[in-house]
Queue: 3 jobs
Job 1
Amino acid sequence: MDWTHPDRLPEIEKQTFRIIQSYLNLAAGKAPKTSLDTEICISLQKMNELDARIFPIISPLQLDTPTQSCEILQHVMQQTFSDGKINWGRIFSIILFGCILVRKMPYTEVHVDNVAECIAAFLLDHESKWLCRHGGLVKSYFSFFLGTWGEIHECSNGW
């Protein structure tokens, strides 16, 4: 897939990359550009609670390159989905983990895009059918975070 030109990607791939990229850019301190980014910002506030629990676990990691972040992320994603179960709690926990990795390194668009690519590629390679059956990432993101936030704790506790 050509992640450097999102306009050439099929719609679900564009949506998946866009939502992850927006989330990571906001987490890295970039101001929202669109109303979608603003909605993501609202969701970020809700995710701070989970962030506070996860960050201390990975803070001792030494990350020197974006490649190291992606290698760690690949391992975490493989472990998270190793039992074959998928749900929105797991997906958004992975995105949150990517956010924490991005925050551990000095901000660069290359690093954000590398982590966004890593997450999007994994989800699309392994879970694209599930994502399509459940309305895609953008639609479900807002339904999940703005409509049923309390369920994230139940979902993420099961992995």
Note: Residues 148-159 have pLDDT under 50 and may be disordered.
Job 2
Amino acid sequence: MKTNTMFLSKIPQIFSYDELLTIIKQEVEVLPSIQFIMNQKDNDNNIAILKFKKKEEALRVEKKIKSTKIFNRKLNVQDYKPSKKSFTKNNSQNVKNTKTHLQRDANTKDKNFLDHERSKKKKKFVSGVKITNKIFDHAKITETADLVKEKSSKAPIKPKHQLFCNNKKKK
């Protein structure tokens, strides 16, 4: 019987030997002989050659490998190459400008966020108790006179103008 070889030339350095074995074990009963060959032209490209006894097994494994999420994800990352246009003199300046622009945005966002946090601390109220100091470690808590009256006499508080009117009548 002739051995059927399958070239995974489109998978440069994606799967390790162990990863390939685990994928193949799911599909094939008898494990094939696996060889990793380095390309002479590109040192980055490893090609896996799998030798199967049955052609069906080779096709099944090839389908399985190409359908894995890892294969697609890693292949997309490796295939991406920036266009040559982006390295011209004109565009390199544009890239610099966008970087500074992005940095400026980031700085203003941080500044705005800090200002927002500071304003929160200044205007913080906890259940009718005012926190007047900016720093919470040394917070001075002041209760208003209205709250003290409310605690002592559990009756509803009258508006201030009515209180003054009543005082005048009693005198």
Note: The chain has a mean pLDDT of 56.
Job 3
Amino acid sequence: MDKRTCFVCSKSGTTEELSACMNCYNIYHLNCHKIDEQSEAYRQRDDLCPVCLISDEQDK
């Protein structure tokens, strides 16, 4: 089982528990993704970490 560390909470998790950002490649727990799941940015860019998603939203 491959263990990784979430960049948001710094806790480890398995590859089944974690996701990777397609922009910066940071690893994070989906539960640590504190963003409004109803927002347009989230629906269009669900492959981004919390930091990149907020940055992407602010650039618009």
Note: Residues 38 and 44 are 10 Å apart (CA to CA).
